[in-house]
Amino acid sequence: MSRVRADEEEYWHSSKFRAFTFDDEDDELSQLKESKRAVNSLRDIVDDDDDDLERVSWSGEPVGSISWSIKETASGSSSSLDGRDSSLQKGSSSYAAALPKQASSYSLSSLFKGRNKLSSFQSLSDALTDTGVKNYAPELRRPKAEYKDYSGDWSPKDTVRRMQRGKVCSLERFRSLQDKLVLLDEAVAGHDGNVITAVLIFLKRTLRREILFRELEVRQVALCHLIHFLRETGEQKFLLDLLRFLDRTEEVALSQYREHLNIQDVEKRREFLKGCIGLPFSAEDTSHIQDHYTLLERQIIIEANDRHLEMAGQSELFRKYPRKASILNMPLVTTLFYSCFYHYTEAEGMFSSPTNLKKTFKIPDKQYVLTALAARAKLRAWGDVDALLTTKNWLGYTKKKAPIGFHRVVEILQRNNAPVQVLQEYVRLVEDVETRLNLATKYKCHDVVIETYRDLKDRIQLTAYKGKVERGSAEEEKINSILSNTQIRWKN
Description:
α19 crosses α21, α26 runs antiparallel to α27 and α27 packs antiparallel against α28. The chain contains 28 helices and 2 strands. It has a two-stranded antiparallel ribbon with strand order 1-2.
Protein backbone atom coordinates (compact mmCIF):
# COMPACT_ATOMS: atom_id res chain seq x y z
CA MET A 1 0.00 0.00 0.00
CA SER A 2 2.83 2.29 0.73
CA ARG A 3 4.31 1.40 -2.65
CA VAL A 4 1.16 2.44 -4.45
CA ARG A 5 1.07 5.72 -2.56
CA ALA A 6 4.70 6.33 -3.51
CA ASP A 7 3.94 5.76 -7.19
CA GLU A 8 1.06 8.19 -7.07
CA GLU A 9 3.21 10.81 -5.37
CA GLU A 10 5.88 10.31 -8.02
CA TYR A 11 3.32 10.64 -10.78
CA TRP A 12 1.80 13.89 -9.50
CA HIS A 13 5.11 15.49 -8.62
CA SER A 14 6.95 14.45 -11.77
CA SER A 15 6.78 16.22 -15.13
CA LYS A 16 8.32 15.66 -18.53
CA PHE A 17 8.55 19.40 -19.07
CA ARG A 18 11.43 21.31 -17.61
CA ALA A 19 11.14 24.71 -16.10
CA PHE A 20 12.47 27.62 -18.06
CA THR A 21 16.04 28.55 -17.31
CA PHE A 22 18.38 31.13 -18.70
CA ASP A 23 21.05 28.47 -19.05
CA ASP A 24 21.68 27.93 -22.80
CA GLU A 25 23.59 24.69 -22.29
CA ASP A 26 21.57 21.49 -21.97
CA ASP A 27 22.20 19.14 -19.17
CA GLU A 28 23.79 16.20 -21.04
CA LEU A 29 23.59 13.94 -18.03
CA SER A 30 19.84 14.42 -17.66
CA GLN A 31 19.32 13.81 -21.41
CA LEU A 32 21.29 10.57 -21.19
CA LYS A 33 19.20 9.40 -18.27
CA GLU A 34 15.99 10.24 -20.06
CA SER A 35 17.05 8.27 -23.14
CA LYS A 36 18.05 5.33 -21.00
CA ARG A 37 14.64 5.33 -19.30
CA ALA A 38 12.93 5.45 -22.71
CA VAL A 39 14.91 2.46 -23.97
CA ASN A 40 14.27 0.50 -20.78
CA SER A 41 10.55 1.19 -21.02
CA LEU A 42 10.47 -0.06 -24.63
CA ARG A 43 10.17 -3.73 -23.65
CA ASP A 44 7.48 -2.99 -21.10
CA ILE A 45 5.35 -1.11 -23.62
CA VAL A 46 5.60 -3.84 -26.26
CA ASP A 47 4.97 -6.61 -23.75
CA ASP A 48 1.83 -4.86 -22.51
CA ASP A 49 0.30 -5.26 -26.01
CA ASP A 50 -1.01 -8.56 -27.44
CA ASP A 51 1.47 -11.17 -26.34
CA ASP A 52 0.35 -13.73 -28.86
CA LEU A 53 0.97 -11.40 -31.83
CA GLU A 54 4.43 -11.83 -33.24
CA ARG A 55 5.56 -8.80 -35.21
CA VAL A 56 8.38 -9.25 -37.65
CA SER A 57 10.17 -6.60 -39.67
CA TRP A 58 11.08 -6.96 -43.39
CA SER A 59 14.57 -8.17 -42.30
CA GLY A 60 13.01 -11.11 -40.43
CA GLU A 61 14.05 -9.95 -36.94
CA PRO A 62 11.39 -9.70 -34.25
CA VAL A 63 10.08 -6.19 -33.83
CA GLY A 64 11.19 -4.67 -30.54
CA SER A 65 14.55 -6.43 -30.31
CA ILE A 66 17.60 -4.34 -29.50
CA SER A 67 19.24 -5.03 -32.87
CA TRP A 68 16.04 -4.06 -34.64
CA SER A 69 15.77 -0.84 -32.59
CA ILE A 70 19.33 0.14 -33.39
CA LYS A 71 18.92 -0.49 -37.09
CA GLU A 72 15.59 1.29 -37.17
CA THR A 73 16.99 4.33 -35.34
CA ALA A 74 20.16 4.45 -37.42
CA SER A 75 18.45 4.09 -40.77
CA GLY A 76 15.47 6.31 -39.98
CA SER A 77 17.17 9.46 -41.18
CA SER A 78 19.56 8.31 -43.89
CA SER A 79 18.72 4.87 -45.21
CA SER A 80 15.06 5.51 -45.70
CA LEU A 81 15.75 8.68 -47.65
CA ASP A 82 18.49 7.03 -49.70
CA GLY A 83 16.28 4.05 -50.43
CA ARG A 84 13.39 6.24 -51.46
CA ASP A 85 15.62 8.31 -53.75
CA SER A 86 17.18 5.26 -55.34
CA SER A 87 13.76 3.68 -55.92
CA LEU A 88 12.57 6.83 -57.65
CA GLN A 89 15.68 6.91 -59.80
CA LYS A 90 15.16 3.31 -60.88
CA GLY A 91 11.59 4.13 -61.80
CA SER A 92 10.20 1.27 -59.70
CA SER A 93 11.46 -1.21 -62.25
CA SER A 94 10.07 -4.32 -60.62
CA TYR A 95 7.67 -5.28 -57.90
CA ALA A 96 10.16 -7.37 -55.98
CA ALA A 97 12.80 -4.64 -56.03
CA ALA A 98 10.39 -1.94 -55.00
CA LEU A 99 9.00 -3.53 -51.86
CA PRO A 100 12.24 -3.51 -49.81
CA LYS A 101 12.83 0.13 -50.72
CA GLN A 102 9.81 1.23 -48.78
CA ALA A 103 10.70 2.56 -45.35
CA SER A 104 9.52 0.44 -42.48
CA SER A 105 6.26 1.54 -40.96
CA TYR A 106 7.74 1.07 -37.48
CA SER A 107 9.62 3.88 -35.79
CA LEU A 108 10.91 4.45 -32.28
CA SER A 109 8.30 7.07 -31.51
CA SER A 110 5.50 4.83 -32.70
CA LEU A 111 6.73 2.04 -30.49
CA PHE A 112 6.54 4.33 -27.46
CA LYS A 113 2.89 4.83 -28.35
CA GLY A 114 2.32 1.12 -28.98
CA ARG A 115 1.18 1.81 -32.61
CA ASN A 116 2.84 2.25 -36.03
CA LYS A 117 2.34 5.06 -38.49
CA LEU A 118 -0.83 3.42 -39.82
CA SER A 119 -2.30 3.32 -36.30
CA SER A 120 -2.17 -0.51 -36.31
CA PHE A 121 0.39 -3.21 -36.67
CA GLN A 122 0.41 -4.51 -40.26
CA SER A 123 0.80 -8.10 -41.22
CA LEU A 124 2.39 -9.23 -44.46
CA SER A 125 -0.95 -9.65 -46.16
CA ASP A 126 -2.00 -6.17 -45.03
CA ALA A 127 1.19 -4.69 -46.37
CA LEU A 128 0.64 -6.33 -49.72
CA THR A 129 -2.83 -4.84 -49.96
CA ASP A 130 -1.54 -1.37 -49.12
CA THR A 131 -2.13 1.42 -51.58
CA GLY A 132 1.53 1.71 -52.46
CA VAL A 133 1.70 -1.95 -53.39
CA LYS A 134 -1.46 -1.78 -55.52
CA ASN A 135 0.22 0.70 -57.78
CA TYR A 136 2.57 -2.03 -58.95
CA ALA A 137 -0.30 -4.31 -60.12
CA PRO A 138 -3.23 -2.10 -61.14
CA GLU A 139 -6.58 -3.78 -61.71
CA LEU A 140 -7.37 -4.50 -65.34
CA ARG A 141 -10.90 -3.25 -65.75
CA ARG A 142 -13.30 -3.76 -68.65
CA PRO A 143 -15.07 -0.82 -70.26
CA LYS A 144 -17.86 0.58 -68.20
CA ALA A 145 -20.37 -0.31 -70.93
CA GLU A 146 -19.70 -3.99 -70.28
CA TYR A 147 -20.94 -3.67 -66.72
CA LYS A 148 -24.37 -2.51 -67.81
CA ASP A 149 -27.19 -4.82 -66.93
CA TYR A 150 -28.33 -6.68 -70.02
CA SER A 151 -31.83 -6.77 -68.64
CA GLY A 152 -31.81 -3.03 -68.05
CA ASP A 153 -34.80 -0.83 -68.51
CA TRP A 154 -34.45 -0.44 -72.26
CA SER A 155 -37.39 0.80 -74.27
CA PRO A 156 -38.61 -1.37 -77.18
CA LYS A 157 -37.02 1.01 -79.67
CA ASP A 158 -33.67 1.03 -77.85
CA THR A 159 -33.80 -2.76 -77.53
CA VAL A 160 -34.30 -3.17 -81.28
CA ARG A 161 -31.45 -0.78 -82.00
CA ARG A 162 -29.14 -2.69 -79.69
CA MET A 163 -30.10 -5.97 -81.32
CA GLN A 164 -29.37 -4.51 -84.76
CA ARG A 165 -25.87 -3.61 -83.53
CA GLY A 166 -25.36 -7.16 -82.31
CA LYS A 167 -25.66 -6.35 -78.60
CA VAL A 168 -26.98 -8.91 -76.15
CA CYS A 169 -30.45 -7.92 -74.97
CA SER A 170 -32.85 -9.76 -72.71
CA LEU A 171 -36.44 -9.66 -73.88
CA GLU A 172 -37.82 -11.19 -70.69
CA ARG A 173 -38.57 -7.75 -69.22
CA PHE A 174 -41.32 -7.26 -71.80
CA ARG A 175 -44.09 -9.08 -69.98
CA SER A 176 -47.31 -7.36 -70.94
CA LEU A 177 -48.95 -8.05 -74.28
CA GLN A 178 -48.82 -4.38 -75.19
CA ASP A 179 -45.06 -4.18 -74.64
CA LYS A 180 -44.49 -7.31 -76.71
CA LEU A 181 -46.55 -5.99 -79.61
CA VAL A 182 -44.75 -2.64 -79.50
CA LEU A 183 -41.46 -4.53 -79.56
CA LEU A 184 -42.63 -6.51 -82.61
CA ASP A 185 -43.75 -3.36 -84.41
CA GLU A 186 -40.40 -1.70 -83.74
CA ALA A 187 -38.59 -4.78 -85.09
CA VAL A 188 -40.68 -4.72 -88.28
CA ALA A 189 -40.06 -0.98 -88.66
CA GLY A 190 -36.32 -1.64 -88.44
CA HIS A 191 -36.43 -3.86 -91.56
CA ASP A 192 -33.96 -6.34 -90.05
CA GLY A 193 -35.01 -9.93 -90.71
CA ASN A 194 -32.81 -11.37 -87.97
CA VAL A 195 -34.28 -9.06 -85.34
CA ILE A 196 -37.84 -9.77 -86.51
CA THR A 197 -37.21 -13.51 -86.32
CA ALA A 198 -35.66 -13.20 -82.84
CA VAL A 199 -38.66 -11.25 -81.55
CA LEU A 200 -41.07 -13.74 -83.14
CA ILE A 201 -39.29 -16.63 -81.42
CA PHE A 202 -39.70 -14.78 -78.12
CA LEU A 203 -43.41 -14.16 -78.75
CA LYS A 204 -43.93 -17.75 -79.88
CA ARG A 205 -42.48 -18.94 -76.59
CA THR A 206 -44.29 -16.51 -74.29
CA LEU A 207 -47.73 -16.08 -75.88
CA ARG A 208 -50.59 -18.47 -76.37
CA ARG A 209 -51.09 -19.58 -79.95
CA GLU A 210 -54.54 -18.01 -80.33
CA ILE A 211 -53.29 -14.61 -79.18
CA LEU A 212 -50.16 -14.79 -81.33
CA PHE A 213 -52.12 -15.86 -84.43
CA ARG A 214 -54.70 -13.11 -83.92
CA GLU A 215 -52.05 -10.40 -83.66
CA LEU A 216 -50.01 -11.71 -86.59
CA GLU A 217 -53.06 -11.75 -88.83
CA VAL A 218 -52.93 -7.94 -88.99
CA ARG A 219 -49.13 -7.87 -89.30
CA GLN A 220 -48.43 -9.51 -92.63
CA VAL A 221 -44.68 -8.86 -92.68
CA ALA A 222 -44.16 -10.56 -89.33
CA LEU A 223 -46.55 -13.33 -90.40
CA CYS A 224 -44.52 -14.09 -93.53
CA HIS A 225 -41.35 -14.21 -91.45
CA LEU A 226 -42.89 -16.67 -89.00
CA ILE A 227 -44.27 -18.94 -91.75
CA HIS A 228 -40.87 -19.04 -93.43
CA PHE A 229 -39.15 -19.73 -90.11
CA LEU A 230 -41.52 -22.61 -89.30
CA ARG A 231 -40.95 -24.16 -92.72
CA GLU A 232 -37.19 -23.90 -92.39
CA THR A 233 -37.15 -25.42 -88.91
CA GLY A 234 -39.66 -28.14 -89.79
CA GLU A 235 -42.21 -27.27 -87.08
CA GLN A 236 -45.01 -28.79 -89.12
CA LYS A 237 -47.70 -29.00 -86.43
CA PHE A 238 -47.33 -25.36 -85.39
CA LEU A 239 -47.37 -24.31 -89.06
CA LEU A 240 -50.53 -26.27 -89.80
CA ASP A 241 -52.27 -24.75 -86.79
CA LEU A 242 -51.32 -21.28 -87.98
CA LEU A 243 -52.50 -21.91 -91.56
CA ARG A 244 -55.80 -23.38 -90.34
CA PHE A 245 -56.37 -20.34 -88.15
CA LEU A 246 -55.76 -18.13 -91.20
CA ASP A 247 -58.17 -20.33 -93.23
CA ARG A 248 -55.53 -21.04 -95.86
CA THR A 249 -56.78 -24.47 -96.83
CA GLU A 250 -54.62 -24.87 -99.95
CA GLU A 251 -51.47 -24.04 -98.03
CA VAL A 252 -52.50 -26.51 -95.36
CA ALA A 253 -52.86 -29.19 -98.02
CA LEU A 254 -49.50 -28.33 -99.61
CA SER A 255 -47.80 -28.42 -96.22
CA GLN A 256 -49.25 -31.84 -95.55
CA TYR A 257 -48.17 -32.98 -99.02
CA ARG A 258 -44.59 -31.96 -98.27
CA GLU A 259 -44.50 -34.61 -95.58
CA HIS A 260 -43.96 -37.28 -98.25
CA LEU A 261 -40.36 -36.10 -98.51
CA ASN A 262 -39.71 -37.48 -95.03
CA ILE A 263 -41.08 -40.95 -95.86
CA GLN A 264 -38.32 -43.29 -97.01
CA ASP A 265 -40.29 -46.50 -97.49
CA VAL A 266 -41.65 -46.47 -101.04
CA GLU A 267 -44.85 -48.39 -100.24
CA LYS A 268 -45.68 -46.06 -97.34
CA ARG A 269 -44.98 -43.06 -99.54
CA ARG A 270 -47.34 -44.40 -102.20
CA GLU A 271 -50.12 -44.84 -99.65
CA PHE A 272 -49.47 -41.36 -98.27
CA LEU A 273 -49.72 -39.82 -101.74
CA LYS A 274 -52.95 -41.70 -102.34
CA GLY A 275 -54.36 -40.08 -99.20
CA CYS A 276 -53.20 -36.62 -100.34
CA ILE A 277 -55.39 -36.78 -103.44
CA GLY A 278 -58.47 -35.97 -101.34
CA LEU A 279 -56.96 -32.86 -99.73
CA PRO A 280 -58.45 -29.44 -100.63
CA PHE A 281 -56.02 -28.59 -103.43
CA SER A 282 -56.78 -26.41 -106.39
CA ALA A 283 -57.79 -28.19 -109.60
CA GLU A 284 -54.31 -27.86 -111.10
CA ASP A 285 -52.57 -29.04 -107.94
CA THR A 286 -54.94 -31.98 -107.62
CA SER A 287 -53.92 -33.08 -111.11
CA HIS A 288 -50.23 -32.91 -110.14
CA ILE A 289 -50.80 -34.97 -106.99
CA GLN A 290 -52.64 -37.58 -109.05
CA ASP A 291 -49.79 -37.74 -111.57
CA HIS A 292 -47.25 -38.08 -108.78
CA TYR A 293 -49.12 -41.01 -107.29
CA THR A 294 -49.52 -42.69 -110.71
CA LEU A 295 -45.86 -42.18 -111.59
CA LEU A 296 -44.67 -43.72 -108.32
CA GLU A 297 -46.99 -46.64 -108.89
CA ARG A 298 -45.51 -47.17 -112.37
CA GLN A 299 -41.98 -46.86 -111.06
CA ILE A 300 -42.59 -49.58 -108.48
CA ILE A 301 -43.77 -51.95 -111.21
CA ILE A 302 -40.91 -51.10 -113.61
CA GLU A 303 -38.29 -51.37 -110.87
CA ALA A 304 -39.48 -54.81 -109.79
CA ASN A 305 -39.46 -56.21 -113.36
CA ASP A 306 -36.11 -54.69 -114.36
CA ARG A 307 -34.42 -55.85 -111.18
CA HIS A 308 -35.57 -59.37 -111.93
CA LEU A 309 -34.30 -59.18 -115.53
CA GLU A 310 -30.97 -57.74 -114.45
CA MET A 311 -30.39 -60.38 -111.80
CA ALA A 312 -31.44 -63.19 -114.13
CA GLY A 313 -29.15 -61.94 -116.92
CA GLN A 314 -31.84 -62.47 -119.55
CA SER A 315 -31.48 -59.06 -121.19
CA GLU A 316 -28.41 -58.25 -123.29
CA LEU A 317 -29.05 -54.52 -122.87
CA PHE A 318 -28.88 -54.78 -119.08
CA ARG A 319 -25.67 -56.80 -119.35
CA LYS A 320 -24.05 -54.28 -121.69
CA TYR A 321 -25.33 -51.18 -119.89
CA PRO A 322 -25.89 -51.99 -116.20
CA ARG A 323 -28.25 -49.72 -114.33
CA LYS A 324 -26.50 -47.08 -112.26
CA ALA A 325 -29.40 -46.28 -109.91
CA SER A 326 -32.93 -47.21 -109.03
CA ILE A 327 -35.79 -45.64 -110.93
CA LEU A 328 -37.85 -45.17 -107.74
CA ASN A 329 -38.74 -41.58 -106.78
CA MET A 330 -37.17 -40.19 -109.95
CA PRO A 331 -38.76 -37.26 -111.85
CA LEU A 332 -40.96 -37.88 -114.88
CA VAL A 333 -38.30 -36.78 -117.40
CA THR A 334 -35.75 -39.13 -115.85
CA THR A 335 -38.28 -41.96 -115.97
CA LEU A 336 -38.96 -41.22 -119.65
CA PHE A 337 -35.23 -41.24 -120.46
CA TYR A 338 -34.88 -44.55 -118.62
CA SER A 339 -37.79 -46.01 -120.55
CA CYS A 340 -36.40 -44.79 -123.90
CA PHE A 341 -33.01 -46.27 -123.03
CA TYR A 342 -34.10 -49.73 -121.85
CA HIS A 343 -37.67 -50.18 -123.19
CA TYR A 344 -37.83 -48.17 -126.41
CA THR A 345 -39.27 -50.93 -128.60
CA GLU A 346 -41.97 -52.13 -126.19
CA ALA A 347 -45.62 -51.95 -127.10
CA GLU A 348 -47.79 -49.10 -125.93
CA GLY A 349 -49.74 -51.38 -123.63
CA MET A 350 -46.73 -51.97 -121.37
CA PHE A 351 -46.31 -49.71 -118.35
CA SER A 352 -42.60 -49.27 -119.19
CA SER A 353 -43.24 -48.25 -122.80
CA PRO A 354 -42.15 -44.67 -123.67
CA THR A 355 -45.28 -44.09 -125.71
CA ASN A 356 -47.39 -45.26 -122.76
CA LEU A 357 -45.68 -42.75 -120.49
CA LYS A 358 -46.14 -40.02 -123.09
CA LYS A 359 -49.84 -40.71 -123.38
CA THR A 360 -50.51 -41.23 -119.67
CA PHE A 361 -48.77 -38.07 -118.48
CA LYS A 362 -49.49 -35.98 -121.59
CA ILE A 363 -45.84 -35.25 -122.33
CA PRO A 364 -45.45 -32.62 -125.12
CA ASP A 365 -43.90 -33.69 -128.43
CA LYS A 366 -40.93 -31.36 -127.98
CA GLN A 367 -40.07 -32.83 -124.57
CA TYR A 368 -40.59 -36.38 -125.78
CA VAL A 369 -38.41 -35.97 -128.91
CA LEU A 370 -35.65 -34.26 -126.96
CA THR A 371 -35.54 -36.99 -124.30
CA ALA A 372 -35.86 -39.91 -126.71
CA LEU A 373 -33.20 -38.45 -129.04
CA ALA A 374 -30.73 -38.12 -126.15
CA ALA A 375 -31.39 -41.71 -125.04
CA ARG A 376 -31.08 -43.30 -128.49
CA ALA A 377 -28.05 -41.20 -129.46
CA LYS A 378 -26.32 -42.36 -126.29
CA LEU A 379 -26.84 -45.93 -127.47
CA ARG A 380 -25.64 -44.87 -130.95
CA ALA A 381 -28.86 -46.21 -132.41
CA TRP A 382 -28.81 -43.96 -135.50
CA GLY A 383 -31.65 -45.86 -137.14
CA ASP A 384 -33.93 -45.06 -134.20
CA VAL A 385 -32.86 -41.42 -134.44
CA ASP A 386 -33.79 -41.32 -138.12
CA ALA A 387 -37.15 -42.98 -137.46
CA LEU A 388 -37.85 -40.61 -134.59
CA LEU A 389 -37.35 -37.56 -136.82
CA THR A 390 -39.16 -38.96 -139.87
CA THR A 391 -42.85 -38.22 -140.33
CA LYS A 392 -45.35 -39.33 -142.99
CA ASN A 393 -48.20 -37.19 -144.28
CA TRP A 394 -51.63 -38.40 -145.35
CA LEU A 395 -50.45 -38.83 -148.94
CA GLY A 396 -47.71 -41.22 -147.84
CA TYR A 397 -44.81 -38.87 -148.39
CA THR A 398 -42.10 -38.82 -145.71
CA LYS A 399 -39.97 -35.99 -144.52
CA LYS A 400 -37.71 -35.05 -141.63
CA LYS A 401 -39.22 -32.98 -138.84
CA ALA A 402 -37.71 -31.87 -135.52
CA PRO A 403 -39.93 -30.02 -133.01
CA ILE A 404 -36.76 -28.95 -131.16
CA GLY A 405 -35.03 -27.62 -134.29
CA PHE A 406 -32.41 -29.41 -136.37
CA HIS A 407 -29.62 -27.25 -134.93
CA ARG A 408 -30.28 -28.85 -131.52
CA VAL A 409 -30.45 -32.26 -133.10
CA VAL A 410 -26.97 -31.70 -134.55
CA GLU A 411 -25.61 -30.61 -131.18
CA ILE A 412 -27.04 -33.69 -129.40
CA LEU A 413 -25.70 -36.05 -132.07
CA GLN A 414 -22.25 -34.46 -132.02
CA ARG A 415 -22.17 -34.67 -128.22
CA ASN A 416 -22.68 -38.42 -128.55
CA ASN A 417 -19.89 -38.76 -131.16
CA ALA A 418 -22.10 -39.27 -134.19
CA PRO A 419 -20.18 -39.93 -137.46
CA VAL A 420 -19.77 -37.11 -140.00
CA GLN A 421 -22.17 -38.76 -142.49
CA VAL A 422 -24.97 -38.67 -139.87
CA LEU A 423 -24.16 -35.11 -138.83
CA GLN A 424 -24.11 -33.85 -142.44
CA GLU A 425 -27.56 -35.26 -143.07
CA TYR A 426 -29.06 -33.13 -140.30
CA VAL A 427 -26.85 -30.07 -140.83
CA ARG A 428 -28.29 -29.79 -144.33
CA LEU A 429 -31.76 -29.57 -142.78
CA VAL A 430 -30.94 -26.41 -140.77
CA GLU A 431 -32.97 -23.69 -142.43
CA ASP A 432 -30.98 -20.60 -141.41
CA VAL A 433 -28.03 -20.30 -143.81
CA GLU A 434 -25.67 -18.59 -141.38
CA THR A 435 -26.40 -21.14 -138.65
CA ARG A 436 -25.94 -23.97 -141.15
CA LEU A 437 -22.53 -22.63 -142.26
CA ASN A 438 -21.39 -22.14 -138.68
CA LEU A 439 -22.36 -25.69 -137.68
CA ALA A 440 -20.88 -27.21 -140.84
CA THR A 441 -17.60 -25.35 -140.35
CA LYS A 442 -17.46 -26.13 -136.65
CA TYR A 443 -18.05 -29.88 -137.09
CA LYS A 444 -16.06 -30.12 -140.38
CA CYS A 445 -18.95 -31.07 -142.60
CA HIS A 446 -17.08 -29.98 -145.75
CA ASP A 447 -19.69 -31.11 -148.28
CA VAL A 448 -22.34 -28.96 -146.61
CA VAL A 449 -20.08 -25.87 -146.67
CA ILE A 450 -19.17 -26.37 -150.33
CA GLU A 451 -22.79 -26.93 -151.39
CA THR A 452 -23.97 -23.89 -149.42
CA TYR A 453 -21.40 -21.55 -151.05
CA ARG A 454 -22.33 -23.01 -154.43
CA ASP A 455 -26.01 -22.30 -153.85
CA LEU A 456 -25.13 -18.79 -152.71
CA LYS A 457 -22.95 -18.37 -155.84
CA ASP A 458 -20.21 -16.93 -153.65
CA ARG A 459 -17.00 -17.60 -155.61
CA ILE A 460 -14.76 -15.67 -153.17
CA GLN A 461 -15.82 -17.64 -150.07
CA LEU A 462 -15.63 -20.94 -151.91
CA THR A 463 -12.12 -20.15 -153.11
CA ALA A 464 -11.08 -19.16 -149.58
CA TYR A 465 -12.52 -22.39 -148.15
CA LYS A 466 -10.45 -24.37 -150.64
CA GLY A 467 -7.39 -23.53 -148.52
CA LYS A 468 -8.99 -25.18 -145.44
CA VAL A 469 -9.37 -28.67 -146.90
CA GLU A 470 -6.60 -31.20 -147.46
CA ARG A 471 -4.72 -31.12 -150.76
CA GLY A 472 -5.69 -33.90 -153.12
CA SER A 473 -8.79 -34.77 -151.10
CA ALA A 474 -12.24 -35.38 -152.56
CA GLU A 475 -13.40 -32.06 -151.13
CA GLU A 476 -10.70 -30.16 -153.03
CA GLU A 477 -11.61 -31.88 -156.30
CA LYS A 478 -15.26 -31.02 -155.70
CA ILE A 479 -14.42 -27.33 -155.17
CA ASN A 480 -12.31 -27.26 -158.38
CA SER A 481 -15.13 -28.86 -160.33
CA ILE A 482 -17.61 -26.25 -159.09
CA LEU A 483 -15.27 -23.32 -159.79
CA SER A 484 -14.63 -24.51 -163.31
CA ASN A 485 -18.32 -24.90 -164.10
CA THR A 486 -19.16 -22.19 -166.66
CA GLN A 487 -22.92 -22.60 -166.22
CA ILE A 488 -22.87 -21.07 -162.73
CA ARG A 489 -23.40 -17.33 -162.72
CA TRP A 490 -21.29 -16.15 -159.78
CA LYS A 491 -22.29 -13.07 -157.82
CA ASN A 492 -18.70 -11.98 -157.23
